[in-house]
TrEMBL record:
Secretion signal span: none
Broad class of the protein's primary localization: cytoplasm
Catalytic function, reaction form: sarcosine + O2 + H2O = formaldehyde + glycine + H2O2; sarcosine + (6S)-5,6,7,8-tetrahydrofolate + O2 = (6R)-5,10-methylene-5,6,7,8-tetrahydrofolate + glycine + H2O2
Gene: soxB_1
Organism: Actibacterium lipolyticum
Name used for this protein in its record: Sarcosine oxidase subunit beta
Swiss-Prot/TrEMBL cofactor(s): FAD; FMN
PROSITE patterns assigned: RHODANESE_3 (PS50206)
Domain (Rhodanese) ranges: 34-78
Keywords from the UniProt entry: Cytoplasm, FAD, Flavoprotein, FMN, Nucleotide-binding, Oxidoreductase
Lineage: Bacteria, Pseudomonadati, Pseudomonadota, Alphaproteobacteria, Rhodobacterales
Length: 416
């Protein structure tokens, strides 16, 4: 069924009885050409582009829970292309271009809102770093505007400009940055993949990966064994555990990242604001909730919930930046499991096992990567060659030393 404004009106006038389920619920077949483990944003977009860009059909996505129940439905929805290093910048630039056409491509309202992102800086040194980043973004063909303090004030009048601990020197403004409705992105890709013949199988946990003579032959699941010629592991925070099923040890640690939302308020924050020095960022959802978060919980964990000290840290940072936030009531908090690599950049690659592929290491920035990751992973699986925008996301870079350390914080998982 094609969606349109006219159809919404028609359905509204006829009791909304004509909407159909958005995807099928097929039983798993005994064999597929391609199995994707993980029905998050990256697994679903990979399935979609395998079918759409490469004409492949005999594909299953196996999801242990429900589609969109992982990090793709837990993030703070920020979409941006403001990377500095070659290797990252062309990839995220490609991703943002895909975002800009995604609603048309999926025929789905993902509520992509390019409301602009402002990264604040608070010292001369930080300004220099943002000037360099802004120039790199412009060289990549993306947009970046350096704002001085008054420039920031014109956009964000509600910040505390008098506080002395983190005086606001200015900000790097990325007008094409913004947000998108996170679970709608999962649903849109799921609907598009299903329409192209992909089997989306929920409540199907992969419990083993079958390998014979160095080649993958299928997977064991809670719904039986399924054979496959190619298997992709796209399980974000669980990547280390799933790869271990094939005897692989990944350079990934899993850490919890929390986020928070307040009660719905009238429109007050119309940008995404990032206060990196205080570990705090915020935007306002279309429902009116102030959505904000901070840093990792700083210890490795598979718990999908956060700890109170980090909640306190984030609230303190919010109060420092915009004291008005103290008037809002926090409605909910939650956590997701982040697959942190030592250099903070992702992995899209083959593994040493023939036919077994890996897409992981999205750290806490993988939502904005969903379109380009699926695009690049599908390209790699269909052609055997890395896509040009993801050519540096190699698994062996931690052995060769060709790191993509965007923040320059060194080889430590919880610092990126
Ligand atoms: C609080 C928070 C805020 C964030 N904010 C942002 C942001 O603003 N912008 C941004 O770009 N990124 C953000 N991120 C990061 C982003 O959400 C993740 O990097 C990204 O969603 C990870 O990829 P995914 O969508 O494929 O993961 P997931 O949705 O987690 O998908 C992986 C799937 O694999 C499934 N799975 C695991 N093991 C198995 C198994 N054995 N068998 C079958 N299935 C399995 C899981 O159930 C899950 O559904 C944030 C994350 C969190 C938690």
């Amino acid at each position: 069924m094609r969606y349109s404004g006219l159809r919404v009106i028609q359905q509204g006038l006829t009791g909304n009885r004509g909407w159909k389920p958005v995807w099928r619920s097929p039983e798993p077949k005994p064999e597929y050409d391609i199995i994707i483990i993980g029905g998050g944003g990256h697994g679903l977009s990979t399935a979609f582009y395998l079918a759409k860009n490469h004409g492949l059909k005999n594909i299953a996505v196996l999801e242990k829970g429900y589609l969109g129940g992982g990090n793709v439905g837990r993030n703070t929805t920020i979409v941006r292309a403001n990377y500095f290093l070659q290797g990252n910048s062309e990839f995220y630039s490609h991703s943002l271009k895909l975002w800009e056409g995604l609603e048309d491509e999926l025929n789905y309202n993902i509520m992509h809102s390019q409301r602009g992102l402002i990264n604040l800086f608070h010292s001369d040194g930080q300004r220099d770093a943002f000037v360099r980043r802004g120039n790199a973004m412009i060289n990549q063909g993306d947009d970046a505007i350096l704002l001085d303090r008054e420039g920031v004030r014109a956009h964000l009048p509600y910040l505390d400009y008098e506080q002395t601990r983190f005086p606001i020197y200015g900000g790097l403004y990325h007008p094409r940055g913004g947000t998108a409705r996170h679970d709608a992105v999962a649903w849109g890709y799921a609907r598009g993949a299903d329409a192209r013949g992909v089997d989306l199988i929920q409540q199907c946990e992969v419990t083993g990966i079958d390998v014979q003579n160095g080649k993958v032959t299928g997977v064991q699941t809670t719904r039986g064994a399924i054979r496959a010629k190619k298997v992709a592991m796209i399980t974000a925070g669980r990547s280390g555990q799933v790869a271990a099923m094939a005897g692989l040890r990944l350079p990934v640690e899993s850490h919890v990242l929390q986020a928070f939302v307040t009660e719905g308020l009238k429109p007050v924050i119309d940008h995404v604001v990032s206060f990196g020095m205080g570990h705090f960022y915020i935007s306002q959802s279309d429902k009116g909730g102030l959505v904000f978060g901070g840093d990792l919980d700083f210890h490795a964990s598979y718990a999908q919930r956060g700890n109170l000290p980090m909640a306190e840290h984030v609230m303190e940072a919010g109060m420092t930046l915009m004291p008005m936030i103290g008037r809002a009531k926090v409605l909910r908090s939650w956590g997701g499991i982040m697959d942190m690599t030592p250099d903070g950049s992702p992995i899209i690659d083959k593994t040493p096992i023939e036919g077994l592929f890996i897409d992981c290491g999205w750290n806490y920035g993988g939502f904005k990567a969903v379109p380009a990751s699926g695009w690049a992973m599908a390209h790699l699986m269909a052609t055997g060659q890395p896509h040009e925008t993801a050519a540096k996301f190699r698994l062996n870079r931690f052995a060769t030393g060709h790191l993509l350390d965007e923040e320059g914080t060194g080889s430590q998982h919880n610092l990126h």
